What does this fold into?
Amino acid sequence: MTIKPLIILPDPLLRQVSKPIEQVDADVLTLADDMLETMYDAPGIGLAGIQIGVARRILVVDVSREGEEKQPLVVINPQILTSSDERSVYEEGCLSIPDYYAEVERPAAVTMEYIGRDGKQHRMEADGLLATCLQHEIDHLNGVLFIDHISRLKREMVIKKFTKAAKTKAI
Ligand code: ZN
It folds into this structure.
């Protein structure tokens, strides 16, 4: 397992729409392991392929609390089937937008179909933090970031800040 470098805002890769994975082969399993390793190292509770520069529809999450047993979940080609009318608000962050947090409102519960690391189709219902985390990561597969769900003014401020920081680093 390898810890991969993270893609950071304003890298245009983050706006790319990821392609489906056709077969869960050894390469995909290695990718999933690398993504988990990278996520735990950061540390974060979710990571999409594009965040390590791989534009494929795969994400990993683990919303277990510190001290609890780890609950790694590998999600391939996810599709949200239903979203609840009830909404919930969580303060979100993103490994690609370090040290920035904002409240985001999303459906409180979702039903999702996906392929697991066993190569089989699964269906799950999620609510609470897991539902928010899954929606945040699925957004990444479509080139959408959590700052797209906040006000334009706040979003522009964040993008400006990270664009400036990236330029400073380049020098
Ligand atoms: Zn993110």
Q: What stands out?
A: The longest helix spans residues 152-170. Helices lie at 26-41, 128-141, 152-170. The two ends are 32 Å apart (CA to CA). The mean pLDDT is 97.
